[in-house]
Amino acid sequence: MAKIFAVANQKGGVGKTTSAVNLAASLAATRQRVLLVDLDPQGNATMGCGVDKHALERSSCEVLLGEATVTDARQPVLDGAFDLLPANGDLTAAEVELMGAMLKEQRLRGALEKVHGDYDFIVVDCPPSLNMLTLNAMVAAEGVIIPMQCEYYALEGLSALMDTIEQIRDSVNPGLRVEGILRTMFDPRVNLADEVSAQLVEHFGQQVYNTVIPRNVRLAEAPSFGTPVLHYDKASRGAMAYLALAGEILRRADAVAA
Ligand code: ADP
Ligand code: MG
Q1: Counting atoms of ligand 1 from 1, which one is nearest the CA of 222?
Q2: Which of 10, 16, 17, 18 best tests ligand 1's pocket when mutated (most atoms within 8 Å of CB)?
Q3: 75-98 pLDDT, tens per residue?
Q4: For position 22, what pLDDT does the model report?
Q5: Which of 60, 89, 93, 211 is most buried by its number of CB atoms within 10 A?
Q6: Cβ-proximal residues to 20 (8 Å cutoff; 6+ apart), any chain
Q7: What domains appear along the chain, each with residue ranges and CATH number?
Q8: pLDDT digits (tens, 9 = 90+) for 139-162
Q9: 40 near 158, Cβ under 8 Å?
Q10: DSSP 8-class letter at 171
Q11: Which ranges in the chain belong to alpha helices (H)?
């Protein structure tokens, strides 16, 4: 049975897509079977895996609307390293259409149930909003990975996210938990980053990953080549950091299973 993680934070530009793509690639590099689900109409994760979002026959939009199965819409990427359920702007229309639909927040869960056995991990990249798409991801997931930049306003909005997670846990998905808070784009030369980082650990303790993702230009460059950083510069600090994150997640999963 696949472990499903939603990578979510309603703030834009905090490293959700970078983390989803590179975590998927890093888990795949350790021989895990991985599906990356793009649930953002911007299609950044799709492009970041080298798939042209303008040329999709089927995407997560059709899956959410019940017009295609995951099996129909997924595609292998990066020479078969992992599978991608791609997305593009059509998802915006799907979000609107879902508003009035039955069991609208359970569409992704239902669709992924049919491919549970095909994967060890399913990683869902969420849009920068607590909308119906993000709700679908959280209803399908067992854990939420929250990327955060250690800056002054970082903690603002976190309580709304935590409240949403709690509401979903209390209603449709009792197993949902915060899988981990991930410090991204970390620059140790910035005093404030250290302070906010310390605050996060004080506040959330074990929920904060030990792995810290540094600010690294290779991570920002890789998407323009349509590839995760591991396939672009595997010796870079960014690549090492996401491999370490995959290791930490695998160890946590083993600890839970033991
Ligand atoms: P989100 O999906 O939360 O909107 P992204 O992952 O797209 O955030 O990241 C926002 C921008 O920051 C992108 O241009 C991305 O390339 C860049 N970026 C993300 N993480 C890093 C990092 N660790 N180092 C340098 N640049 C980064
Ligand atoms: Mg994104």
Answers
A1: 16
A2: 18
A3: 999 999 999 999 999 999 998 888
A4: 98
A5: 60
A6: 7, 36, 45, 123, 124, 125
A7: 3-257 (3.40.50.300)
A8: 999 999 999 999 878 788 888 899
A9: no
A10: T
A11: 16-29, 44-48, 60-64, 70-73, 90-99, 107-113, 132-140, 158-170, 191-204, 217-221, 237-257
